[in-house]
Design brief:
Number of strands: 14
Main location: cytoplasm
Number of domains: 2
GO molecular function: 4 iron, 4 sulfur cluster binding; coproporphyrinogen oxidase activity; metal ion binding
CATH topology of the largest domain: TIM Barrel
Shape: globular
Radius of gyration: 21 Å
Strand content: 15-25%
Keywords: 4Fe-4S, Chaperone, Cytoplasm, Heme, Iron, Iron-sulfur, Metal-binding, S-adenosyl-L-methionine
GO cellular component, one term: cytoplasm
Helix content: 25-40%
InterPro entries: Aldolase_TIM, Coproporphyrinogen-III_oxidase, Elp3/MiaA/NifB-like_rSAM, HemW-like, rSAM, rSAM_sf
């Protein structure tokens, strides 16, 4: 059911933004729609998701209407602060968004369109588990305005999927990709590496299988052990080994080399695309710190430097909206120093990098030693940009510490 919400200031029940908050009307506006439902809970997952037995009175069949109520509330809040911006990106995440009927997802998207409009080239992504995707469903999503499907492949190896508590048949990934393609959707596949018992050859098989599917985009994330998860308990009891950092580094190098050979370029530490146009613009908006409103239980938002987050449980979320109240549980406004630190942390992860001139004096002095250590691209630094090398991507946290010392 996810990690605890952050501490922060109380959020007003009407959802109003601070009077002195400045919103840039030229800045992109993104929308995140959280669908918190899953058939089973994966042992490694600490996202805010719920199986049927954990809903405690919340109803999946009422969920789309609840989100549409929050969208309407957000429109009233933002309309009081200046001209409304059309959504440049929309992302249905979860959980498993495709556990809801395609018609419900379409109605939620229509709610966004009615409230704000969609930019003419809006990117609209739906995350999907492979075993929930059918050709008719993909066609209905495309007709509703979805442009992109992100399919949770995770692995092509049965024993690795079992270690991750994934329930889909590996063969079903190709079927899901074909269904999305037949509907005219762009396709991304998501992979996870470093699962208990996964060898480098297992990982090679998964990466090569993913490449053979000819997706437009690939995400590959190292398995992280989150406190409170089943996996963390298994490791603590000695039932399965902890992820091996050296093996995960080898796995990262393998996926980067294999995808590069297949014509993909990295654009963020864990993400590769065939062309710049096929990068996830929604995720890039997060890394660049633009504005977005997150809808649904536990969803986070960021507008004009203000951050807030919703109540976690779907039942509490529904109760707030039924009472015509904002579901926001708390909010915070990081100061300038915190924003600078976060900016370096996020933008150093993308291939565009960040300007050397934006670093503090100590950070600029660190650039030369980071180049000497092979962590920052020297040619890019001469052009005034901090861009990670492959080795730097493996040690991104250390690079950030040096740049923000």
């Amino acid at each position: 059911m996810g990690s605890a919400l952050p501490l922060g200031d109380p959020a007003p029940l009407d959802g109003a933004l601070p009077d002195d908050l400045v919103i840039d009307p030229q800045r992109d506006f993104g929308v995140y729609l959280h669908v918190p439902f899953c058939r089973v809970r994966c042992g490694y997952c600490d996202f805010n998701t719920y199986t049927a037995g954990e809903l405690r009175g919340a109803r999946q069949d009422a969920y789309a209407d609840e989100v549409i109520r929050e969208i309407a509330l957000s429109r009233r809040v933002l309309a009081d602060r200046g001209p409304l911006r059309p959504a440049s990106t929309v992302f249905f995440g979860g959980g498993t968004p495709t556990l809801l009927p395609a018609g419900d997802l379409g109605r939620m998207l229509a709610g966004v369109r009615d409230a704000f409009g969609l930019a003419p080239d809006a990117e609209v992504t739906v995350e999907a588990n492979p075993d929930t995707v059918t050709a008719p469903m993909a066609a209905e999503l495309a007709a509703a305005g979805v442009t992109r499907m992100s399919i949770g492949m995770q692995s092509a190896v049965p024993h690795v999927l079992a270690a991750l508590d994934r329930t889909h048949d590996p063969a079903g990934v190709a079927t899901a990709v074909a269904a999305a393609r037949s509907a005219g959707l762009d396709v991304s596949v998501d992979l996870i590496y470093g699962a208990p018992g996964e060898s480098l050859e297992d990982w090679r098989a998964s990466v090569e299988t993913a490449v053979a599917l000819a997706p437009d985009h690939v995400s590959a994330y190292a398995l992280i052990v989150e406190e409170g998860t089943k996996l963390a308990r298994q490791i603590r009891r000695g039932e399965v080994p902890e992820p091996d950092d050296d093996l995960q580094a080898d796995m990262y190098e393998l996926v980067d080399e294999t995808l590069a050979a297949a014509g993909f370029d990295w654009y963020e530490v864990s993400n590769w695309a065939r062309t710049p146009a096929q990068r996830s613009r929604h995720n890039l908006a997060y890394w660049r710190g633009t504005d977005w409103w997150g809808y649904g239980p536990g969803a986070h938002s960021h507008v004009g430097g203000l951050r807030w987050w919703n109540v976690k449980h779907p039942a509490a979320y529904a109760q707030r909206l039924a009472a015509a109240q904002s579901p926001a549980a708390g909010r915070e406004r990081p100061d300038a120093a915190a924003r600078r630190l976060e900016d370096v942390l996020l933008r150093s992860r993308i291939a565009d990098g960040l300007a050397v001139s934006e670093l503090s004096g100590e950070g600029r002095h660190a650039v030369a030693s980071l180049i000497a250590d092979g962590l920052i691209d020297g040619a890019a630094a001469v052009r005034g940009r901090v861009v990670l090398t492959r080795r730097g991507r493996l040690l991104a946290d250390a690079v950030v510490r040096a740049l923000t010392a």
